[in-house]
Write a structure and sequence with these properties.
Blueprint (H helix, E strand, L loop, with lengths): L8 H4 L12 H16 L20 E8 L5 E6 L6 E3 L8 H16 L14 E8 L6 E7 L7 H11 L3 E8 L11 E6 L3 E6 L2 E6 L8 H15 L6 E5 L5 H6 L5 E6 L2 H13 L5 E5 L2 H10 L6 E4 L8 H10 L3 E6 L2 H13 L3 E8 L9 E7 L1
Parallel strand pairs: 5-6, 10-11, 10-13, 11-12, 13-14
Antiparallel strand pairs: 1-2, 1-4, 2-3, 4-5, 6-7, 8-9, 14-16, 15-16
Helix pairs in contact: 3-4, 8-9
The protein binds S-adenosylmethionine.
EC number: 2.1.1.190
GO molecular function: rRNA (uridine-C5-)-methyltransferase activity
Family: Belongs to the class I-like SAM-binding methyltransferase superfamily. RNA M5U methyltransferase family.
């Protein structure tokens, strides 16, 4: 690995995005292995962490926050560690280069349109953040411009300029966030240009990704994650599958070819609309999706006396709920495949399942987030 790549001027200025950057990647993997063994070792053998061949430029998503520069010019970047001061970011070692190109285009167009950054204290100005997503399949970029109020003066000129400066921009969405919050996105949005989503491919399946849908940020490692999880499920075409916390349907739709049927459950409405459309676009006839809280959905399934053979669950960082785990346990599937980006809450949930008589069969960490302290982990559980 090129040693030069381990140097970043942003880190010296206080960027907290890559806390492990100064450590060689092989050593990072070694540290993550030790960490996972310490955390999960009581459940059984922890397989070697699957690292990334080229652990750079892997991110398909970036968020840049607007602020005022020293000469009152519009700048954008990330908050310096532990502060509310925005560090200007022009390039990042972890971003796909198209993301930086798109953010530069937005900044340049916004300056030409004389847009001002939103000031949280004074409640003045317009622009809060820009979120960009890139598709490795089409090389297209989705731009989400987050504004504090709905009116975007000269929106047509803004769109024209952004497309001139970055021709790979496939769609531009305006998201309105007028709340006092650290959350990036607000609840309402309008499409300024294009279809409002981009299409990417994982495991041979095409996925629509809308502005507010969850989508894994490292597509190369995500393919490895999903293939490993689906293989570990041991599907042979006869099993019924539940994909809980399914996002745009990625795991369930990738597993559908090996299952009798798939039911996906997700509480984000726009993600579930994408999931339904993704089944149609990929001509998958044995998958269905439900827009509901996963805990409520599983309780209803169990109350109806129904059961599924295999459960994939991939909850948010907070993990699942005792009610969900209890209901799944009572439903008694052959296998649970628990995928998590937060092994601490995963461990808590596994301890709950252990008390109900479940046993861990496989622990497979996958490094989805090189140069950061985070690790994704697949755990297979059965009775
Ligand atoms: C870590 S993501 C996994 C998504 C998907 N499996 C994937 O790999 O792209 C967690 C998902 O759970 C959804 N979610 C969060 N809380 C939920 C709940 N209580 N019920 C159902 N879905 C929920 C989020 O919207 C998000 O899409």
């Amino acid at each position: 690995m090129d040693r030069q790549e381990n140097r970043c001027h942003l880190q010296e200025k206080g960027c907290g995005g890559c806390p492990l950057l100064s450590i060689p990647y092989e050593e990072q993997i070694h540290m993550k292995q030790k960490e996972m063994k310490k955390l999960m070792g009581n459940f059984g053998k922890v397989r070697p962490v699957i690292g990334m061949e080229y652990p750079w430029q892997y991110r398909n998503k970036a968020v840049s926050t607007f602020a005022e520069g020293p000469g009152r010019e519009l700048i954008s970047g990330i908050y310096a560690r532990g502060t509310h001061y925005v560090l200007p970011v022009h390039t990042c070692l972890l971003h796909h280069p198209r993301l930086d190109e798109a953010v530069r285009a937005v900044r340049k167009a916004a300056r030409l349109c004389k847009y001002r950054p939103y000031d949280e204290d004074r409640k003045t100005g317009l622009l809060r953040h820009v979120l960009v997503r890139h598709s490795l399949l089409t090389d297209e970029v989705l731009i989400v411009l987050v504004t504090a109020s709905p009116f975007l003066p000269g929106a047509k000129t803004f769109v024209k300029r952004v497309r001139e400066f970055c021709p790979k921009v496939g769609t531009i969405v305006q998201n309105i966030n007028n709340r006092s919050t650290s959350a990036v996105l607000g609840f309402s949005e309008k499409i300024l240009y294009g279809k409002g989503y981009i299409v990417d491919e994982l495991c041979g399946i095409r996925f629509r990704i809308a502005a507010s849908s969850f989508y894994q940020i490292n597509p190369v490692q995500t393919e490895i994650l999903y293939r490993t999880a689906i293989e570990a499920a041991g599907l042979n075409g006869t099993q019924t599958v539940l994909d809980a916390y399914c996002g745009v349907g990625t795991i369930g739709l990738a597993a559908a070819a090996y299952a009798k049927s798939v039911l996906g459950v997700e509480k984000n409405g726009s993600a579930i609309r994408c999931a339904i459309q993704n089944t149609r676009d990929n001509r998958i006839h044995n998958a269905h999706f439900l827009n509901e809280d996963a805990t409520k959905a599983i309780r209803k399934i169990v109350a109806r006396g129904e059961r599924v053979d295999v459960v994939f669950l991939d909850p948010p960082r907070t993990g699942s709920t005792p009610v969900f785990l209890d209901a799944v346990s009572r439903m008694n599937p052959e296998k649970l495949i628990y995928i998590s980006c937060n092994p601490k809450t995963q461990k808590r949930d596994l301890e709950f399942l252990k008390k109900k008589g479940w046993r861990v069969q496989m622990i497979q960490p996958v490094d989805l987030f090189p140069h950061t302290e985070h690790t994704e982990c697949i755990v297979v559980v059965s009775r």
